[in-house]
Amino acid sequence: MNVSIVSSTFQPVRIAALAAVIAVMPVGAFAQTPPPAPQRVAPAPAPPKQRAAPQAAGSEAPAPSAPATQGLAAAKTDDVIARVGNANVSSDELRAYVGALGAQDQAALAKDPALLSQAVRMLLANRLVLQEVLAKKWDQQPTIAAQLDRVRENALTELYLQSVSTPPAGFPSEDDLQKVYDANRAALLMPRQFQLAQIFIAAPKDADKATEEKAKKSLDEVAGKLKAPGADFAAIARAANEKDGGDLGWVTENQIRPEIKTLLIGLAKNSVSEPIRLDDGWHILKLIDTKAAYTRTLPEVRDQLVQQIRAERAGAMRRAYLAELLKRNPPILNELALSNLLDSSRK
Predict the structure, then answer these.
(1) Contacts by 151-156 with C-beta closer than 8 Å and gap 24+?
(2) If phi over 0 gives left and psi between -120 and 50 gives alpha, with beta otherwise, what is residue 28?
(3) Is the peptide bond before 38 cis (omega within 30 degrees of 0)?
(4) Using CA atoms, how far apart are residues 69 and 50, in angstroms rounded to an integer?
(5) Alpha-carbon gap, residue 250 to 183, rounded angstroms
(6) Which of 14, 133, 306, 346 makes an SS bond possible with 107, Cβ 3.0 to 4.6 Å?
(7) What is the model's pTM?
(8) Element of type H or E holding 286
(9) Could you report the per-residue pLDDT of 92-147, keeping only the tens digit for each?
């Protein structure tokens, strides 16, 4: 979609649905996926801890290549879907990786499975780096070791807090879910939607005269074709280099710039607009269909609501746990020493 017709304030709602897709996706599909386009991708998981390569006694030189098959190396041969050197990635590990992603990242992968190939490549690259780190014993430097200790402490604390603040499996109940849905109906309104197609002719407002004249000539040609009896908008759009015949799909009312929305409201179904000039060029829109605004049903938003309710309960449980822990073990702070520490750090 040409972004110029879309309001910059729009934030689309995403629904996670990848886990099930990955669960049924054949292993071979991962292995044969071509390199992905350079798009956003969730970070690859940290590789498992490995043991440094053994060296000859008294030798200072790092081992030329450390074994990198820990953990995943135990995977069955037919379960391996990617490999770099001696390091393997199994389908089980990849499923676990996807399952640990956030909802938005899972939705992005569901929309573009090629991103999974990119994530696997990042995972393999991380393992190559780890091999080098361990071979050089870089992690054994005192400052690095101290940082690793802090990272481990923070990770342990976080994992434990998660374990004591996880809501019961059956939470929320259907009754609780219905009450939350009823209380938030106003926020679940889906605005009116427009199914659109577009022909766009680039002509930036700061373009020189030659560019402007060329764009105007193209615009006149397209407009003339569209006015011919039986004109095929999609075919004309493809001839104008619009992907998928200029199809923009369904766009919600609050996504659309006000001047475009005004234009669309005056159009009948399956009619084509007059060209409209925006900062980036000329836009000709076809209104294919419309959907009236409606309140999303509980089945439509169930997964999102459950996720949000559980997250809020988990936060409350964590706060209550920490409050109780501190109540039983009141901390003692030397405020004077803290103040002196801050003063000395400012000098």
Answers:
(1) none
(2) alpha
(3) no
(4) 8
(5) 28
(6) 14
(7) 0.55
(8) strand 281-291
(9) 888 888 888 888 888 888 888 888 888 888 888 988 899 899 999 999 999 999 99
